[in-house]
Specification:
four-stranded antiparallel beta sheet; single chain; alpha+beta; 10 strands; binds (R)-mevalonate; 16 helices
Length: 441
């Protein structure tokens, strides 16, 4: 494709309508593009402005379906779970698993821990031993200087849990890190953590500037950067389902429940030894997790990044879920890090995120961790069940049928007939095209 003509300086300063018109000129039919993109603006200008201001250079909205997975039993509590996802069959897969496990004791979940991490990366040229000797004093100074900032969080039971100095000078000359642990309560806490860390950076500089008995060059620290870590292995949730193997009878018409449990376990074990399969397997888990994370206005990139790092904790990228079969009991489990918030950020700003939380019963952040992880395990169960029985395409393409019909501009009546016709046939783009041709003749 040809390179696009550069947009002149000042694009971000243009009014939204001008931005849209300018961008429309890059299309074959600018007028049509303006109309199309504008048709996705909210009719209520005030509501639209809210969305515009979530980000920058907004010219329209990009819609993704908001669906519901009804009746998800977690720790004996029934949840109606909103899922925001564009991929057909994810909500259906989650709902099918929720129904299946709802009849077998439901999902069980526990939050392992909620600690999050932030880092002050800095350079200092003095004596290492001396730095470690000074560290208790530095720590007191950092805590004192952020006392006001952390007061509210401490009142809610959170705040700074501890910090330690790490010596990385063997890898990078003069480079040290202060690794800080936080409990941010029901907030995802990114802004809180980053603000505290930035103050730590300033305080560290002040502290050294005041050390008059140190040589002049050692009274300076270089603050390289201060930022939270999205690696949150200690902000982690465990969710599992289990049942006697006989309760898996009937999943595969040719296998007993006991035999099927072994086959299912093999499929999950493969994702523990083979990175290609592990990646797809975990992607299926994030189909469910991301959908809830997005529906609640949380940061799915952060959640995924932490998950993939956690999946590599044994030195190789592996499945996040695992199966055991002991004493005739099938146990399927998922353990994942998950930094979520139920207050602050987009969770309070996005009108639909707010409604999602309300529908979920206004959960605490730890409770929301259990819900999102459950949907991950639910999707993982349905995916592996399909893969190990009838294959993924049968269900997938059935759900995709509507997308194909829409792409081929089928009428409502044609859609109805197509759904009837493909009930017992394999769906493919070519097959649907041929079927519609037949109808249209
Ligand atoms: C598709 O979005 C997800 C799956 O590929 C997951 C898996 O293979 O386990 C079906």
């Amino acid at each position: 494709m040809d390179t696009r003509e550069r947009i002149k300086k000042g694009f971000s300063k243009l009014p939204k309508e001008e931005k849209l018109k300018l961008i429309a000129n890059y299309f074959e039919n600018p007028g049509e593009v303006v109309r199309l993109l504008k048709s996705y603006w909210h009719a209520d200008a005030k509501k639209q402005q809210l969305f515009d201001e979530f980000s920058e250079n907004t010219i329209t909205n990009f819609f993704i379906p908001y669906g519901i997975s009804p009746n998800v039993n977690i720790n004996g509590k029934n949840y109606i779970v909103p899922m925001v996802i564009e991929e057909s069959s994810v909500v259906a897969a989650a709902s099918a698993a929720a129904k299946f496990w709802g009849e077998r004791g439901g999902f069980h979940a526990e939050v392992v821990d909620v600690r999050k991490v932030g880092q002050v990366h800095f350079g200092w040229s003095g004596d290492k031993e001396q730095l470690f000797a000074l560290f208790p004093e530095i720590e007191q100074r950092l805590l004192a200087d952020t006392d006001g900032m952390t007061e509210k969080m401490r009142k809610r039971g959170g705040g700074i849990l501890g910090m330690r100095l790490i010596d990385y000078t063997a890898q990078i000359p003069d480079y040290y890190q202060i690794r800080v642990e936080f409990d941010t309560g029901d907030a995802m806490g990114a802004n809180f953590i980053n603000s505290v860390l930035e103050q730590f950076g300033h305080s560290l500089q002040d502290f050294f500037a005041e050390q008059s008995d140190l040589p002049k060059e050692q009274r300076k620290v270089e603050i390289i950067m201060t930022i939270l870590s999205n690696n949150t292995p200690d902000c982690r949730v465990r969710v599992w389902v289990e049942c006697p193997v006989e309760q898996l009878d009937g999943i595969d018409e040719n296998l007993s429940g006991a035999e099927y449990a072994k086959k299912f376990k093999k499929a999950v074990d493969i994702a523990h030894i083979d990175v290609d399969r592990a990646t797809t397997h975990n992607k299926g888990i994030y189909n469910g997790i991301d959908a809830v994370v997005i529906a609640t206005g949380n940061d799915f990139r952060a959640v995924e990044a932490a998950g993939h790092t956690f999946a590599s904790r044994n030195g190789r990228y592996e499945s996040l879920s695992s199966v055991t079969i002991e004493d005739g009991v099938f146990h399927f489990e998922l353990e994942v890090p998950m930094a979520l918030g139920t207050v602050g950020g987009l969770t309070s700003l996005h009108p639909l995120a707010k409604k999602t939380l309300e529908l979920l019963g206004n959960p605490t952040a730890p409770e929301l961790m259990t819900i999102a992880a459950t949907m991950g395990l639910a999707n993982n169960f349905s995916a592996v069940r399909s893969l190990t029985t009838k294959g993924i395409q049968a269900g997938h393409m059935k759900m995709h049928l509507n997308n194909i019909l829409n792409q081929l501009n089928a009428t409502e009546e044609q859609k109805r007939q197509a759904h009837e016709y493909f009930k017992d046939k394999t769906v493919s783009f070519a097959a649907v095209e041929k079927f519609l041709e037949g109808l249209r003749k």
